[in-house]
Amino acid sequence: MKDAIASALEESQAREYILYLLGNVPGLPPIVQTFHIAGICIVVGSIVMINLRFLGIAVPSQNITEMIDRLMPWMWWALLVNVLSGLVFVIARPLRYFYNPVFPYKLALLIPAVILAFLVYRLHRSEQNYWESSSSRLRYGQFIATVSLALWVGVIISGRWIAYWDYLPFFYE
């Protein structure tokens, strides 16, 4: 499966177009990278603040509902920017990602992290003050927040190690 996808991307018109743009538009690679990094900062900053609020560590003067209303839209838009900028890199160099042993770890952590964020958002939208309405919901939110924080830390670490996987000796054993 991975071979078929990587081969299809290697031969795609989209790849040719992206490579042309990256090679011919002055400054485009660092601009795309900057958008990707800024998106990461916004996504992680938003979700970490929400998770820390669930855990009672950050901004105790603001209720969870207000924080979700303020920060989740930023997170979703930044996540879209990250998907688009990340696709530019993957389409431009599919073999670098599809055969990188760290890349599947990043996706395996990212997908459930996004699903948990979506779950928190959907439950929040289902009822006014959903998370504050009962102590059991708050405890459930605290559990989600703890798992979410661990997943996002893993996403960040694995995302950075994608570029440096050849320095990880346990992948050679």
Write the layout of secondary structure elements.
Elements lengths: L1 H9 L2 H12 L3 H27 L9 H29 L1 H5 L4 H24 L8 H27 L12
Helix pairs in contact: 3-4, 3-7, 6-7
Description:
With about 170 residues, the protein is mainly alpha-helical. The chain contains seven helices and no strands. The mean pLDDT is about 90. About 75% of the residues lie in helices and about 0% in strands. It is elongated, with a radius of gyration of 19 Å.
Figure out the total of helices: 7
Overall spatial form: elongated
Low-confidence stretches: none
| Alpha-beta classification | mainly alpha
Radius of gyration of CA atoms, rounded to a whole number: 19 Å
Order of helices and strands: HHHHHHH
Question: How much strand?
Answer: under 5%
Average pLDDT confidence is 91
Instruction: Tally the beta strands.
Output: 0
| Termini separation | 24 Å
* Helical residues, percent: over 70%
User: What composes the largest sheet?
Assistant: none
Keywords for this entry:
173 residues; mainly alpha; 7 helices; elongated
Q: Quick summary of this structure?
A:
The chain is mainly α and 173 residues long. The chain has helices spanning 2-10, 13-24, 28-54, 64-92, 94-98, 103-126, 135-161.
